[in-house]
Amino acid sequence: MSTKETNQEAEEQEINNQAQTEENIETVEASQDVELTELEKLEAEKKELNDKFLRLFSDFDNFRKRTAKEKLESTRTAGVGVIKDLLTVVDDFDRAIENNKVAEDILAVKEGFGLIHNKFSSILKAKGLKEVEAKGEVFDVDKHEAITQIPAPSEDLKGKVVDVIEKGYALNDTVIRFPKVIVGQ
């Protein structure tokens, strides 16, 4: 080969190398642009997710505060229904007191108080209050509160409740006051 041909080939090779280099630079720049757009996309997605998180956290915090407020309000007004029902008994007592000032028939007074007691008891039963039975039952520390012990009047009353000093009550099967009892020994 001649020098001329070799020079020509070298020039062609150099032109090809320059073209290849320019192509490589364009490819690198394009990949950097792609990386930048992907990075921008990830940043935008991160901002969107962060915004969603903050909104969800705020919604939950508002829900928590609203629920606490509703619970407080519910606790404050829980007894309204019971109080309204008991006001009729108070009215009956007021009328009985007024009538007792001029009443001369003691049997009528006793009957009136009996009627008021029955009305009061029926209202409490309707609200779920039940008397806890204790007399004659075997003494149980989990169900009774012993005030004292006395000698049992009969052999079958040993270890059992002989007398009830103060009645016990349960509200919807939950004891709210244990009966105070005397136990046979």
Q: What features would you describe in this structure?
A:
The protein is of the alpha+beta class. It folds into three domains: 78 residues; 49 residues; 56 residues, Head domain of nucleotide exchange factor GrpE (Nucleotide Exchange Factor Grpe, Chain A, domain 2), CATH 2.30.22. It contains three helices and six strands. The strands form two sheets. A three-stranded antiparallel beta sheet has the order 1-4-5. The protein has a three-stranded mixed beta sheet with strand order 2-6-3, with no helix packed on it. Strand 4 and strand 5 form a beta hairpin. Helix 2 packs antiparallel against helix 3. The longest helix has 74 residues. The radius of gyration is 46 Å and the shape is elongated. It starts with a helix and ends with a strand. The mean pLDDT is 87.
